[in-house]
Amino acid sequence: MKKIVLCAFALTVFNFINAQEESTSYKPLEGTVTTEVGLTGGLNNANFNLGGGLLKFRYFLKEDIGLRLGVSIDNEKDELTSTVDNPFVVNGIRNTNNNNNSFKVGVEKHFAGSNRLSTYGGVDLIVGFGKDSDEIVADNGNYIKTEQKNSRFGAAIFTGADYYIAQKVYLGVEAGLNFVSTKVKDGETSTKQGNNLDTIVNPGSKGSDFVTDIFGGIRIGYQF
Q: Please, which of 17, 78, 93, 154 could form a disulfide with 126 given CB 3.0 to 4.6 Å?
Protein backbone atom coordinates (compact mmCIF):
# COMPACT_ATOMS: atom_id res chain seq x y z
CA MET A 1 0.00 0.00 0.00
CA LYS A 2 2.84 2.34 0.95
CA LYS A 3 4.55 1.74 -2.43
CA ILE A 4 1.32 2.52 -4.26
CA VAL A 5 0.94 5.81 -2.36
CA LEU A 6 4.57 6.78 -3.13
CA CYS A 7 4.14 5.97 -6.82
CA ALA A 8 0.95 8.00 -6.99
CA PHE A 9 2.68 10.92 -5.25
CA ALA A 10 5.65 10.77 -7.66
CA LEU A 11 3.30 10.67 -10.65
CA THR A 12 1.39 13.67 -9.32
CA VAL A 13 4.62 15.67 -8.87
CA PHE A 14 5.81 14.73 -12.37
CA ASN A 15 2.50 15.78 -13.92
CA PHE A 16 2.60 19.06 -11.99
CA ILE A 17 6.14 19.86 -13.18
CA ASN A 18 5.25 18.90 -16.74
CA ALA A 19 2.17 21.12 -16.64
CA GLN A 20 4.25 24.02 -15.37
CA GLU A 21 6.76 23.41 -18.17
CA GLU A 22 4.04 23.41 -20.82
CA SER A 23 2.51 26.64 -19.51
CA THR A 24 5.84 28.51 -19.45
CA SER A 25 6.30 30.97 -22.31
CA TYR A 26 9.67 30.67 -24.06
CA LYS A 27 9.25 32.03 -27.56
CA PRO A 28 9.13 35.77 -28.40
CA LEU A 29 5.94 37.76 -28.05
CA GLU A 30 4.87 40.96 -29.75
CA GLY A 31 7.40 43.70 -28.92
CA THR A 32 10.21 41.30 -27.95
CA VAL A 33 13.77 42.36 -28.82
CA THR A 34 16.52 39.74 -29.21
CA THR A 35 20.24 39.91 -29.88
CA GLU A 36 22.66 37.15 -30.83
CA VAL A 37 26.17 36.36 -32.00
CA GLY A 38 27.48 33.56 -34.17
CA LEU A 39 29.74 30.80 -32.92
CA THR A 40 32.72 29.51 -34.88
CA GLY A 41 34.53 26.27 -34.25
CA GLY A 42 31.40 24.34 -33.26
CA LEU A 43 30.05 23.82 -29.76
CA ASN A 44 33.10 21.89 -28.55
CA ASN A 45 35.53 24.68 -29.48
CA ALA A 46 33.30 27.72 -29.70
CA ASN A 47 34.53 31.23 -30.45
CA PHE A 48 32.57 34.42 -30.97
CA ASN A 49 32.97 36.02 -34.39
CA LEU A 50 31.53 39.26 -35.81
CA GLY A 51 32.34 38.27 -39.39
CA GLY A 52 29.64 37.11 -41.86
CA GLY A 53 26.81 39.16 -40.38
CA LEU A 54 26.89 37.24 -37.14
CA LEU A 55 25.95 40.08 -34.80
CA LYS A 56 22.18 40.35 -35.13
CA PHE A 57 19.24 42.15 -33.56
CA ARG A 58 15.56 41.31 -33.99
CA TYR A 59 12.33 43.10 -33.14
CA PHE A 60 9.06 41.13 -33.22
CA LEU A 61 6.14 43.05 -34.70
CA LYS A 62 3.98 40.03 -33.90
CA GLU A 63 4.68 36.60 -32.41
CA ASP A 64 5.33 35.23 -35.90
CA ILE A 65 6.86 38.26 -37.68
CA GLY A 66 10.29 39.64 -36.81
CA LEU A 67 12.37 42.47 -38.29
CA ARG A 68 16.14 41.95 -38.18
CA LEU A 69 19.41 43.84 -38.53
CA GLY A 70 22.69 41.99 -39.07
CA VAL A 71 26.16 43.53 -38.86
CA SER A 72 29.33 41.99 -40.29
CA ILE A 73 32.63 43.57 -39.25
CA ASP A 74 35.80 42.23 -40.87
CA ASN A 75 38.91 44.36 -40.29
CA GLU A 76 42.47 43.08 -40.59
CA LYS A 77 45.51 45.24 -39.96
CA ASP A 78 49.16 44.13 -40.02
CA GLU A 79 52.41 45.96 -39.44
CA LEU A 80 55.78 44.44 -40.30
CA THR A 81 59.25 45.34 -41.49
CA SER A 82 59.25 45.78 -45.25
CA THR A 83 60.94 43.09 -47.33
CA VAL A 84 60.16 44.78 -50.64
CA ASP A 85 63.19 44.90 -52.94
CA ASN A 86 63.09 48.65 -53.52
CA PRO A 87 66.14 50.80 -52.72
CA PHE A 88 64.28 53.86 -51.47
CA VAL A 89 62.06 52.09 -48.98
CA VAL A 90 64.65 49.76 -47.52
CA ASN A 91 64.38 49.61 -43.68
CA GLY A 92 60.76 50.64 -44.06
CA ILE A 93 57.62 49.66 -42.16
CA ARG A 94 54.78 48.05 -44.08
CA ASN A 95 51.16 48.51 -43.01
CA THR A 96 48.32 46.59 -44.63
CA ASN A 97 44.71 47.28 -43.79
CA ASN A 98 41.83 45.28 -45.26
CA ASN A 99 38.31 45.99 -44.08
CA ASN A 100 34.94 44.80 -45.33
CA ASN A 101 31.77 45.73 -43.48
CA SER A 102 28.24 44.64 -44.37
CA PHE A 103 24.73 45.32 -43.10
CA LYS A 104 21.70 43.10 -43.56
CA VAL A 105 18.14 44.33 -43.04
CA GLY A 106 15.38 41.78 -43.35
CA VAL A 107 12.19 40.12 -42.17
CA GLU A 108 11.48 36.66 -40.69
CA LYS A 109 8.29 34.60 -40.75
CA HIS A 110 8.11 32.22 -37.77
CA PHE A 111 6.12 28.99 -37.82
CA ALA A 112 4.29 27.04 -35.12
CA GLY A 113 7.15 24.79 -33.98
CA SER A 114 6.72 23.79 -30.34
CA ASN A 115 6.84 25.38 -26.91
CA ARG A 116 10.63 25.77 -27.11
CA LEU A 117 11.33 25.43 -30.85
CA SER A 118 10.75 28.27 -33.29
CA THR A 119 11.41 27.64 -36.99
CA TYR A 120 11.43 30.45 -39.54
CA GLY A 121 12.32 31.65 -43.02
CA GLY A 122 12.86 35.06 -44.56
CA VAL A 123 14.77 37.49 -46.77
CA ASP A 124 17.52 40.09 -46.24
CA LEU A 125 18.69 43.17 -48.12
CA ILE A 126 22.51 43.41 -48.12
CA VAL A 127 24.61 46.60 -48.33
CA GLY A 128 28.38 46.59 -47.85
CA PHE A 129 31.53 48.59 -48.32
CA GLY A 130 35.24 48.00 -47.90
CA LYS A 131 38.76 49.27 -48.49
CA ASP A 132 42.14 47.61 -49.07
CA SER A 133 45.28 49.64 -48.43
CA ASP A 134 49.00 48.87 -48.46
CA GLU A 135 51.54 51.40 -47.20
CA ILE A 136 55.33 51.16 -47.04
CA VAL A 137 57.09 54.06 -45.30
CA ALA A 138 60.89 54.30 -45.14
CA ASP A 139 62.95 55.84 -42.34
CA ASN A 140 63.90 58.72 -44.67
CA GLY A 141 60.26 59.63 -45.40
CA ASN A 142 59.94 57.96 -48.80
CA TYR A 143 56.81 55.85 -49.25
CA ILE A 144 54.61 53.76 -51.51
CA LYS A 145 50.87 53.88 -50.75
CA THR A 146 48.09 51.95 -52.48
CA GLU A 147 44.37 52.20 -51.74
CA GLN A 148 41.26 50.74 -53.40
CA LYS A 149 37.63 50.74 -52.28
CA ASN A 150 34.73 48.43 -53.06
CA SER A 151 30.98 48.31 -52.53
CA ARG A 152 28.40 45.51 -52.44
CA PHE A 153 24.66 45.24 -52.88
CA GLY A 154 22.44 42.19 -52.89
CA ALA A 155 19.88 40.00 -51.16
CA ALA A 156 19.69 36.74 -49.21
CA ILE A 157 17.09 34.07 -48.57
CA PHE A 158 17.40 31.92 -45.45
CA THR A 159 15.80 29.44 -43.10
CA GLY A 160 16.61 28.68 -39.49
CA ALA A 161 15.47 27.55 -36.07
CA ASP A 162 15.78 28.76 -32.48
CA TYR A 163 15.61 26.35 -29.55
CA TYR A 164 15.09 27.90 -26.12
CA ILE A 165 17.31 26.14 -23.59
CA ALA A 166 15.92 28.40 -20.84
CA GLN A 167 13.56 31.34 -20.61
CA LYS A 168 14.87 34.13 -22.87
CA VAL A 169 18.01 32.17 -23.89
CA TYR A 170 18.27 30.18 -27.12
CA LEU A 171 20.61 28.32 -29.42
CA GLY A 172 19.97 28.57 -33.13
CA VAL A 173 21.04 27.46 -36.57
CA GLU A 174 20.60 29.30 -39.84
CA ALA A 175 21.50 28.67 -43.48
CA GLY A 176 20.73 30.31 -46.78
CA LEU A 177 21.90 31.81 -50.04
CA ASN A 178 23.51 35.21 -50.67
CA PHE A 179 23.13 36.94 -54.04
CA VAL A 180 25.65 39.79 -54.04
CA SER A 181 26.93 42.20 -56.69
CA THR A 182 30.38 43.69 -55.93
CA LYS A 183 31.96 46.69 -57.62
CA VAL A 184 35.64 47.60 -57.21
CA LYS A 185 36.23 51.33 -57.58
CA ASP A 186 39.29 52.97 -59.16
CA GLY A 187 42.19 53.10 -56.74
CA GLU A 188 45.46 54.98 -56.49
CA THR A 189 49.12 54.20 -55.94
CA SER A 190 51.26 57.10 -54.72
CA THR A 191 55.05 56.92 -54.72
CA LYS A 192 57.22 59.53 -52.97
CA GLN A 193 60.98 59.58 -53.49
CA GLY A 194 62.71 62.62 -52.09
CA ASN A 195 60.86 65.66 -53.48
CA ASN A 196 59.21 63.67 -56.27
CA LEU A 197 55.62 62.43 -55.87
CA ASP A 198 53.98 60.26 -58.54
CA THR A 199 50.39 59.00 -58.50
CA ILE A 200 48.89 56.42 -60.84
CA VAL A 201 45.30 55.17 -61.10
CA ASN A 202 44.55 51.48 -60.58
CA PRO A 203 41.41 50.68 -62.62
CA GLY A 204 38.55 49.03 -60.79
CA SER A 205 35.92 46.68 -62.14
CA LYS A 206 34.27 47.94 -65.31
CA GLY A 207 31.07 46.20 -64.28
CA SER A 208 29.78 44.29 -61.29
CA ASP A 209 30.62 40.74 -60.25
CA PHE A 210 27.50 38.79 -59.28
CA VAL A 211 28.20 36.00 -56.80
CA THR A 212 25.95 33.38 -55.20
CA ASP A 213 27.22 31.66 -52.07
CA ILE A 214 25.92 29.47 -49.25
CA PHE A 215 26.16 30.53 -45.62
CA GLY A 216 25.33 28.86 -42.34
CA GLY A 217 26.24 28.77 -38.69
CA ILE A 218 25.39 28.22 -35.03
CA ARG A 219 24.14 31.14 -32.94
CA ILE A 220 23.49 31.90 -29.30
CA GLY A 221 21.11 34.68 -28.28
CA TYR A 222 18.77 36.04 -25.67
CA GLN A 223 15.65 38.16 -25.32
CA PHE A 224 15.68 41.54 -23.62
A: 154
